[in-house]
Amino acid sequence: MNLNNKPVKGFLLDITGVLYNSDPNKIGRVIEGSVEAVNRLYAESAVRFVTNESTRSRKHLFEKLTKLGFTLKEEHIFMPIPEAKRYIKEHNLRPHILVHKGILNEFDDLDTKHPNCVLMGDAEGGFTYESMNAAFRVLHATSDPLIITLGFGKFYQRIDGPCMDVAGFARALQYACDA
After folding, report:
1. 132-146 confidence digits (pLDDT tens)
2. Which fold is adopted by the domain 2-78?
3. Strand (E) positions, the chain?
4. How would DSSP label each residue in 93-124?
């Protein structure tokens, strides 16, 4: 396969909204033609998947995609969680963690005692006054407030309509703390 007479070495594909649309109560809905397109690309070139999905682990997302009919390898899915953890460890940070309960255990190996920053993902129903205020208090107590987000989307589309994403919540904390 080549594009403009230059060989194509591979493809990076987003997942949510490209391969399937989210459903709050079910596995999701495949976007028409996406399974066939992914299979064709896999047969002809290298394919990797990138996502700012922050409500599920890579393993869970892989299992979901497999159930939806996609043929892919788990290690070909790249998500923000490992990079955020690497950054936190390299900078000796101790995050207050505000993420979806489905990925909370992904951060069990981080030191969260006496937090000096906030790590945020799409917490969905976990964004409450109490959870946001706890994050605010951590940031307010530091001289140089730091918010690390697993994505910065304004909203994402589910089959039941658009949903506010993590950026709005992160911006609220930024505003409140002058971060």
Report:
1. 999 999 999 999 999
2. Rossmann fold (3.40.50)
3. 2-3, 6-7, 10-13, 20-21, 29-30, 46-50, 77-78, 95-98, 117-120, 147-149, 155-158, 161-164
4. --EEEE--TTTGGGGTTS--SS--EEEE---G
Upper half-sphere CA count for residue 117 (Cβ side, 13 Å): 19
> 80-177 is classed in which CATH architecture?
3-Layer(aba) Sandwich (3.40)
3-state secondary structure of 20: strand
- Where are the CATH 3.40.50.1000 domain residues in the chain? 2-78, 80-177
pLDDT digits (tens, 9 = 90+) for 13-45: 999 889 998 887 788 899 999 999 999 998 888
